[in-house]
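Q: I have 297 residues here and want to know how they pack in 3D. Can you give me a structure?
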Amino acid sequence: MATLQDIRRRIRSVTNTRKITKAMELVAAARLRRAEARITQMRDYADRMQELTAGTARAAASLRGLTLLQQREERTVAVLPITGDRGLAGAFNAQILRRAFALERQLRSDGKETRWLAVGRKGRSSLEFRRYALDRAWTGFTDRPSYADAQAIAHHLAELYEQEEIDRAVIVYNHYVSPLVQRVTEQEVLPISEELLRRDEEEEAEERALTGDFIYEPEPEEILARLLPVYLETELYRALLESSASEQGARMTAMRSASKSAGELIDSLTLAMNRARQAEITQEILEVVAGADALNA
């Protein structure tokens, strides 16, 4: 049975832990507010970029010469899980890696080869621990990713695709819904789907009614060749921002839960300490009474 001193020592330890988790919760909440503002702006920008690319694709006479749009027989698929650089975020990293490994098993069962890339130290360390051949990893920016980080990833993926080292590229990340909800998402980024660049006739007619027809200079095919790499960078940047906001939300929720659990444990230990102290007092009283009875006898 734990002594009174042991219980007091444990209460102090849990109290110090609660101070840390509370501080981490406040920091994550502050970062989450900034991340939410960034992802809200980025979603609007990404939608406008898709509309611009779609409009240029509709005006192009042919899309056959654009490498990033070419569909090939799938032999090698690049899988890119987007994780965090740090832990203490609940199931944020684990659910990403679980989905990525499930995707790899599915590809292997279909007779396709998987080529691994990773964003975040957690993803890199997990892949290395499982002895997967890791093509490349990007770390150190998951808390606050920049557009340059997305450019570096996009350029590497585009280079692999253009050199026909991969035939498809899939990213796995957490889509931010709320601090309590992050939805694991698989998104195919290469080849860029022509369906994503096409909209229905009603949207096209509405756009023409508002803006009229465009005159393209240079030719739409040349403009589209420049737009597609930027579109790929934009999609990756949006995924990085979604993942960053999801990580902060998951960490804030996890630290809040940890602080609550620490408080409940402190209450339980305090009750046990009071009972142990009362038992000691009772024992001392009994010893005093027994000693007095012995003297009177």
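Q: Anything worth noting?
A: The two ends are 35 Å apart (CA to CA). The helical segments are 4-59, 92-109, 121-129, 147-162, 201-211, 220-296.
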